[in-house]
Design brief:
Shape: elongated
Order of helices and strands: HHHHHHHHHEEEHEEHEEHHHEHEHEEEHH
CATH topology of the largest domain: ABC transporter transmembrane region fold
Number of strands: 12
CATH class of the largest domain: Mainly Alpha
Strand content: 5-15%
Structural class: alpha/beta
Length: 584
């Protein structure tokens, strides 16, 4: 995302906080006013001592100037606190809004977006990049506001008091802007490269930690260490480059600031000497005031240069976040109808689908499933079994043709109503951190205690749940570890509790022992009575009682029929069957 687009995106998030921004700007003006008044009163106090009238110190005036000096300092301190408070509030509310929108966007993105990217990359954007954006905004509010106001205010006061010295300062000023701009443009590119390298390393670490068992099983530790070292080296290199460019900003501007200070000393000293004895001399106190103003004038350039360096980093990270937020969502369900009173008739007419345009997967697929049928989908790996399930659930939309449920094109119904009518148990288990009860009632939060326990018993999960420390109130994901089989039984019980009119079982018993599998198969048989069921299986022993078996190969249904008729035909199904049972 381009820098201008990123800035416009950040401004959109700042717009709701306009009243707080105006108040912060007002606080910044008061802070600057207090800081500008302090050198003025200090200079007048010095004149009361350095050039006393009638040979004595002007104590009354000195006291009043000192009181005014203290009051301006206290006022600046109070409003600086208010400015900091407002800056933090705005920055972290913006951070909260960006993270909320980013997470909401992930919920609305099509699965093809997430399937094509490492999860760690998305995680890095929401966590690390968002934090960097907040840090950049904090610096912008707390230092950029006051810095700009200070520069303008100091220049105005110096022009009013002694325009000749102000002109000297003004002539040297563009050099600071040139240096800051020169470095900032290069810093943005390096920080963008750093953010990309950090996301790449996070994605790799997330992938390896999440699959550590497989890594250890194949003894890939040393290989992964080398890969991680390479990614870490890339992050180190880009980080050092980014830090190098950002760190050169401050010394460069300090050098320019030293030139400004030296110019004020020389010009001010000249005017102190040349105007001595005149009616309106340029006093030592006035020179002291100008020197303090010179420091105040140059200090914001250091701060602004630091802000620019940090802001470039924030912009690079904000660009990644806003790009995520701006990704194209799934087509809206706004004009779609809801599926109601579903009987379970499923049909596919000349369906074609591929994950990538250059590689065809499913083509010319036709199905005609009657309500209540148990349909098994078998075939070699990569033939399109799970893809067909993804199409039925509208995790992906077909490229050509159409899929119908009860005669209704599923693209014309809301995804929620479609998915509420499917119960899905996958080979991969997922349980959220929470109690067993919360996990079981995820799809049916209003169920009764009796219904929940009945579903757990039907899934053969009740007995091991009662052996847990707190039964159904046991919190999973902390001190309680479950086996993969136990997790799968909970997932099965969760679907049984919903009792949807259609079922999808994608290797649903693959992690369960043979004895428990027989019990669960009996429970499934009872659950599938009167319900349209799709059973994806590699073990053909689990699908022999299906009403219809679809044999898929290369994205097509090449055979269909019952177990016995397919064996008698002697086709591809028989080859698969013999491959599994020839030695039995």
């Amino acid at each position: 995302m381009k820098k201008k687009e990123t800035l416009r995106g950040i401004l959109r998030y700042l717009r709701p906080h306009l009243p707080a921004l105006i108040l912060a700007l007002f606080a910044a003006l008061i802070v600057v006013a207090g800081q500008l008044l302090a050198p003025f009163f200090a200079g007048r106090a010095i004149d009361c001592i350095a050039t006393p009238e009638k040979g004595g110190i002007l104590w009354e005036k000195l006291t009043s100037y000192l009181i005014a000096l203290g009051a301006s300092a206290v006022c600046a301190m109070i409003f600086q606190w208010i400015l900091t408070l407002l800056s933090n509030r705005i920055a972290y509310r913006v951070l909260s809004s960006i993270r909320k929108d980013a997470f909401a966007k992930i919920e609305k993105l099509p699965l093809k977006y997430l399937d094509a990217r490492p999860y760690g990359d998305t995680l890095s954007a929401i966590v690390s990049d968002a934090e960097t954006v907040a840090d950049g905004l904090l610096l912008g509010f707390s230092q950029l506001f006051t810095g700009i106001c200070t520069i303008v205010g100091v220049l105005g006061v110096m022009l009013a008091v002694r325009w000749e010295i102000a002109l000297v300062v003004f002539c040297i000023t563009p050099l600071s802007f040139f240096v800051a701009r020169f470095i900032a443009r290069r810093t943005y590119k390096t920080y963008r490269a750093q953010a990309s390298a950090r996301a790449d390393e996070t994605a790799f670490a997330d992938e390896m930690i999440g699959n550590l068992k497989i890594v250890k099983a194949f003894s890939r530790e040393s290989v992964n260490e080398k890969i991680f070292a390479e990614k870490n080296e890339e992050l180190r290199r880009t980080s050092l480059r980014a830090v190098f460019f950002s760190s050169t900003t401050n010394p460069s501007t300090r050098f320019v600031n030293a030139l400004v200070y030296a110019a004020v000393v020389l010009a001010g000293g000249y005017f102190v000497i040349s105007t001595a004895g005149m009616g309106a001399p340029f006093t030592v106190g006035a020179l002291t005031t100008f020197l303090q103003y010179a420091n105040q004038y140059t200090k914001p350039f250091n701060e602004i240069s630091e802000v620019f360096a940090e802001f470039q980093n924030a912009l690079a990270c904000a660009g990644r976040l806003l790009k995520l937020i701006g990704e194209e969502e799934e087509p809206s369900d706004e004009n779609c109808i809801s599926l109601e009173n579903v009987k379970g008739a499923v049909a596919a007419k000349d369906v074609a689908f591929s994950y990538t345009p250059e590689k065809e997967l499913i083509k010319h697929l036709d199905l005609d499933i009657k309500p209540g049928m148990r349909v098994a989908i078998v075939g070699p790996t990569g033939c399109g079994k799970t893809t067909l399930i993804n199409l039925l659930m509208r995790f992906y939309d077909v490229d050509e043709g159409a899929i119908f449920v009860d005669g209704q094109d599923i693209r014309t119904v809301t995804r929620q109503s479609l998915r509420e009518n499917f119960g899905m148990v996958l080979q991969e288990t997922w349980l959220k951190e929470g109690t067993v009860r919360e996990n079981l009632t995820l799809g049916q939060p209003d169920c009764t205690e009796e219904e929940m326990i009945e579903a757990a018993k039907a899934a053969k999960a009740h007995s091991f749940i009662m052996r847990l420390p707190a039964g159904y109130e046991t919190v999973l994901g902390r001190d309680t570890a479950l086996s993969e089989g136990q997790k799968q039984l909970l997932c099965i019980a969760r679907v049984m509790l919903c009792r949807p009119p259609m079922l999808i079982l994608d290797e649903a018993t693959s992690n369960i022992d043979t004895r428990t599998e027989k019990l669960v198969q009996d429970a499934f048989a009872a659950l599938m009575q009167g319900r349209t069921s799709f059973i994806v299986a590699h073990r053909l022993s689990t699908v022999q009682n299906a009403d219809l078996i679809l044999v898929m190969k290369d994205g097509k249904v090449i055979e269909h029929g019952t177990h016995q008729t397919l064996l008698e035909e002697g086709g591809f199904y028989r080859e698969l069957y013999n491959a599994q049972f020839a030695r039995m």
